[in-house]
Amino acid sequence: MPEPVNRITGIAAPLPRANVDTDAIIPKAHLLTIHRSGLGAGLFSEWRFDDDGRERPDFVLNQAPWREAKILLAGENFGCGSSREHAVWSLMDFGIGCVIAPSFASIFHENCQKNGLAAVTLDEAALAQLVAVVQATPAATMTVDIETCRVTAPDGREFPFTMEAARRQALLEGLDEIGASLRHDAAMAAFEARDRAQRPWIHALPTA
Amino acid sequence: MTTPRSIIDKIWDQHVVADLGDGRVLLHIDRHMLHEVTSPQAYAGLAAAGRRLRRPDLTFATADHIVSTENGRTDDTVPGGPEMIRALRANAEATGVALFDLGDIRQGIVHVIAPELGIALPGATLVCGDSHTSTVGALGAMAWGIGTSEVEHVMATQTAILRRPPTMRITVTGTRPAGVSAKDMVLKLIATIGTAGATGYGVEYAGPAIRALSMEERMTVCNMSVELGARFGLIAPDEVTFAYLQGRPFAPAGDLWEQAVDAWRALASDPGARFDAEIELDVSGLTPQVSWGTSPQDCIGVGETVPDPEREADPKRRQAMRRALDYIGLEPGTPIRDLPVDMVFIGSCTNSRIEDLRAAAAVLKGRRVAAGLRALVVPGSGQVRRQAEAEGLDRVFTAAGFEWREPGCSMCAGMNADRVPPGKRCVATSNRNFEGRQGPGARTHLASPATAAAAAVAGRIVDVRSLEGSA
Ligand code: SF4
């Protein structure tokens, strides 16, 4: 169940590359687990490490102070590709609490919400400005306020963003979505009764 | 007069359990498919919260992603693999979910077995913790991939929380030339509208060129809907669909079948139904497609040359192209034809069904794989494998020098031991050519089964239509 998130303050790492897919975020070698924890070790592992497991110094998350980043400034269509939720778990396990991008791939976007990772959408121009600021002053912190829907850049400039009400509320409350859905139990039972009559072939399956 | 509705509207309306306000609804899920990689954490979450799996009778499981595809395989695969296979087995057993386990003829790639077993049905909603769930939209189902938390949500509630997606109709016209496959058609579509071309949309594929496809070809098209960014892609059911489904193990039978078919006939979009976007593609002059880069949209006709990033106006696209060419090891202007390849992979949920194997075998008959080239054929399911063996296709493949393997995802994702070594070039019938997809440093060229088979014979990329005796 996700923790409530009101605001994220921290160092922001620039990774303004378009179409970063979930294979890149968490390569498959790290999916061989039945747990959610510990996946930060595999975050961007093919970009972070060379074939011998040594850090590649040119990758942004291997550079001080960005290795401490809490916020990722990303490119459009971030999180495309495979539906693996491990991508979100690995970002969070690494310490990233918020990704800001011009757009997110839809399954990834949903996965963010379910886990309390703030996925914030800003237009290209605003992102380019943020990237420029963090490149000039890497150690300065940025704040993403979910309550007021505002990103405050290290230089004090403010960038308002919009977030769907339900997403915003889920973040702020650390929503137990399944618990909330289960409150519709009566509606579910009513649906099933009606649907069994209308589409019996959906509900009465031959047994294996 | 009621407002004309699209097939997507009809399926949506049928499944709304509760309106959550703010545009979201709880949508009933008719079929839930589980596999070993994305289900264990969902099961763990369910257990931790003390919740039960609401409809085990609508839930089905198989192991496909990390299983070994070696003949005589066991649970042992890559490190960590056996633990996942055993977890799936224990979880399915504990919750009363039907499992198509290793050794069961019904085991296979989850999106191959869902239609094959008659689990996926027209007008049904079907989800799986896997992005290529869109495959079974071919039957007229609304089918989409979900993350593990959503898997847990469906386990507990048999519903998913959704916003109604905008709808897009992709009308495909013209007659597909001989020797050009459904795979070429969908690759061309992605190259034309791009990997973000249908982002967030629910897509209906329509038009004469779609109607003319076999059921399995429709699956190939719907499979790659997610490569267009679509939430799902479907094709209205017709006689082709019904003929395919009748008699399948989990499909309705007897009176229930008649009743179901009547309902399914009413699913097609009404004349005048409104879509939020419309796209047309004419496939009359289509040629076999091959990818040159690291995105499925990086596709060209086999007779064309690798594009030049410097001619690209959009700076971001230019940069992505440069990066792709650097990774794939190609120069702008190089003809894609005659490019030497090291490996060929025929398989995956895009192209591992019986018709795919027949198409590849037709090319391979009486021919040999080029010296030094490794070629794998991995049937999508135990049933596909058995059918192929009954038709003697396995002997065509092995006589040509292909490895004939057990069903699974295999080299599509390289999650088991089947990988393309760094820097090696592979023609693959799968759906993604991302960096590292088939293994770190692997260079993937997406193509149809016939094109892949032709490449295996020639040891380089060729136009399958130029091989003597091939259609
Ligand atoms: S065959 Fe490939 S794309 Fe299909 S489910 Fe398996 S890994 Fe995913």
UniProtKB/TrEMBL annotation, chain A:
Keywords: Amino-acid biosynthesis, Branched-chain amino acid biosynthesis, Leucine biosynthesis, Lyase. One of its GO terms (biological process) is L-leucine biosynthetic process. Belongs to the LeuD family. LeuD type 1 subfamily. NCBIfam families: leuD, PRK01641.1. GO terms for cellular component: 3-isopropylmalate dehydratase complex. Catalyzes the isomerization between 2-isopropylmalate and 3-isopropylmalate, via the formation of 2-isopropylmaleate. GO terms for molecular function: 3-isopropylmalate dehydratase activity. The keyword Lyase applies. The lineage of its organism: Bacteria, Pseudomonadati, Pseudomonadota, Alphaproteobacteria, Rhodospirillales. Its EC number is 4.2.1.33. Heterodimer of LeuC and LeuD. Pathway: Amino-acid biosynthesis; L-leucine biosynthesis; L-leucine from 3-methyl-2-oxobutanoate: step 2/4. Residues 6-124 form the Aconitase A/isopropylmalate dehydratase small subunit swivel domain. It catalyses: (2R,3S)-3-isopropylmalate = (2S)-2-isopropylmalate. This is 3-isopropylmalate dehydratase small subunit.
From TrEMBL, chain B:
Heterodimer of LeuC and LeuD. One of its GO terms (molecular function) is metal ion binding. It holds the Pfam family Aconitase. Pathway: Amino-acid biosynthesis; L-leucine biosynthesis; L-leucine from 3-methyl-2-oxobutanoate: step 2/4. SUPFAM superfamilies: Aconitase iron-sulfur domain (SSF53732). GO terms for biological process: L-leucine biosynthetic process. It catalyses: (2R,3S)-3-isopropylmalate = (2S)-2-isopropylmalate. Binds 1 [4Fe-4S] cluster per subunit. It comes from Azospirillum brasilense. [4Fe-4S] cluster binds at residues 349, 409, 412. This is 3-isopropylmalate dehydratase large subunit.
